[in-house]
Amino acid sequence: MFQHYVLYSLNEMNKINHNTDKDDYKKETLIKVIDDYKIGTIFCSEIDNMVKYKDTPMRKNDDKIYNTWSVGGMLSEALDKTELAYGLQNKYIKPIIPKNMIDKKKMELLPRYKNQQYDVLFLKKIGMKNKLNSICPILDNNGKIKFKNFKGNLIHHGETFEMANYFGRKAPLMTYVYKINKYADESIKNFFMNNKTSDDQDIKMWVLSECNSFHVLDNINKKKNDKIIGHDSIGCTIYCGKQKVDRIFWCGSILSDTDKNVDANFTPTIIQVAAGLLSGLSYIMEDKNKNRGLLEPCDLDTTYILQKSIPLLGKFFFTEIPKELFIGKLEYEFV
């Protein structure tokens, strides 16, 4: 869904800029929006705010890794070294990343093509140890929308590379900034503390081989105190400006366990993923699309995808975030 949050946002920004209600999803139009607004950075910003109904501290000797969706899927992304994609001619605001955190040797291995439009910045550390500031909307205790500053992990996601390829030389710097679920965060730290590994080991393969330690926090046959409640906020945060952040936009979904379309056995995160998958599957099953061959997500009709998925996404909206509410800096942090 990340691609369509971005495309929808750029279309809405174009309508604001030209004071029109007419949609225009042509690639050349959306690329021009990048220059019109001086968009230098786009994060997929996610905050997993799911907690147990009776929130209890995690035991230090608990040797399981928890998550509100696939543990293996989350670890396969979190234990990859961070990669950030960006267009070679996008000169607008970018996160500050110290040079000593950039893997220059890996950068040298990346093939350079004559007509290359975008590049990939490799960092030395895995996603769980890299963080950036971002901002996105969440729900307060009364169910009202408020904006939250947070530090999120730079988790590997293939969508950022597709978007960089789509926008080419004008592509903003893109990465996934993810504040993972508190139980996932604590349990991963506990697991590594209780199972010492050296830097020379292939940590990713070692952990994924320990899948008997994985536990998905769902609500299947759970008693009330153990049920998972809360919401998941996921969308794109768009930073505009040349030398500093001048404007911030966001588009995405905030889905709560209390939304009527969330099955009592599962969490909002699972529903958000399913909404994207099912809307894409619906699109390719339409008679008019059956002979189109291989399609990338950006090739799918954004209006169609959103019309199919929005009924499942809880609070879906596009908004401008007042820049003064972003109290952090676009600055890398190693943890």
Give a description of the structure.
29% of the residues lie in helices and 29% in strands. It has 9 helices and 12 strands. It has helices at residues 2-18, 27-37, 71-78, 104-109, 159-167, 182-194, 203-208, 268-285, 302-309; strands at residues 39-52, 65-67, 81-87, 118-126, 130-139, 145-155, 173-179, 214-216, 228-240, 247-256, 315-321, 332-334. A hairpin with a 6-residue loop joins strand 9 and strand 10. The radius of gyration is 20 Å and the shape is globular. The model has no long low-confidence stretch (mean pLDDT 88).
Topology diagram in text:
Layout: H1 2-18, H2 27-37, E1 39-52, E2 65-67, H3 71-78, E3 81-87, H4 104-109, E4 118-126, E5 130-139, E6 145-155, H5 159-167, E7 173-179, H6 182-194, H7 203-208, E8 214-216, E9 228-240, E10 247-256, H8 268-285, H9 302-309, E11 315-321, E12 332-334
Parallel strand pairs: 1-7, 2-8
Antiparallel strand pairs: 1-9, 3-4, 5-6, 5-12, 6-7, 9-10, 10-11
Question: Tell me, what is the CATH class?
Answer: Alpha Beta
- Please trace the helix and strand order, writing H or E for each element: HHEEHEHEEEHEHHEEEHHEE
Low-confidence blocks of residues = none
How does the overall form come out from the CA principal axes?
A: globular
Total domains, how many? 1
Global mean pLDDT: 88
Number of DSSP helical runs: 9
- In this structure, how is the largest beta sheet organized? 8 strands, mixed
Beta-strand segment tally: 12
Beta-strand residue percentage: 25-35%
Under CATH, the homologous superfamily reads homospermidine synthase like
Residue share in helices?
25-40%
Tell me the span between the first and last alpha carbons: 29 Å
CATH architecture assignment: 2-Layer Sandwich
Main sheet strand line-up: 11-10-9-1-7-6-5-12
Structural class: alpha+beta
Radius of gyration: 20 Å
Instruction: Enter the CATH topology name.
Output: Dihydrodipicolinate Reductase, domain 2
